[in-house]
Specification:
Helices cover 3% and strands 48% of the residues. It is built from one helix and eleven strands, in the order βββββββββαββ. Strands 2, 4, 5, 6, 9, 10 and 11 form a seven-stranded mixed beta sheet that branches. The chain has a four-stranded antiparallel beta sheet with strand order 1-3-8-7, with no helix packed on it.
């Protein structure tokens, strides 16, 4: 069983940056792929970005390529989401999720692939 806790959300102006953290406990963190998803009011949850268990492979939604990056520190059981050049349309609750045995971008980008979820952190980008 893995517990995930997101932090780092907040209010930022368009063009600004935020770094979200996803801290894990209760499992072999280094064996899990980690994804970030977001959900805006009235919209479906959507894939943002993901990183493989080793950190070698990363996967991005087209909407965040060139602006968001993901990294992990397995020694600290933490994944980081660096968000730059933020836009008002990035406003959402951001969730991190964990799963094992994911292979390929289709699996990493499918929220149904993930077994464990955090409670979410709000990101609001003002125009």
């Amino acid at each position: 069983q893995v517990q995930l806790v997101e932090s780092g959300g907040g209010l930022v102006q368009a063009g600004g940056s935020l770094r979200l953290s996803c801290a894990a406990s209760g499992g072999s963190f280094s064996m899990y792929g980690i994804g970030w998803f977001r959900q805006a009011p009235g919209k479906a949850r959507e894939f943002v970005i993901a990183i493989s268990w080793s950190g070698v492979s990363t996967f991005y939604a087209d909407s965040v390529k060139g602006r968001f990056t993901i990294s992990r520190d397995n020694a600290k059981n933490t994944v980081y989401l660096q968000m730059n050049s933020l836009k008002p349309e990035d406003t959402a609750v951001y969730y991190c999720a964990a799963a094992r045995y994911l292979i390929g971008s289709n699996r990493y980008s499918d929220y149904g692939s993930y077994h464990y979820w955090g409670q979410g952190t709000q990101v609001t980008v003002s125009s």
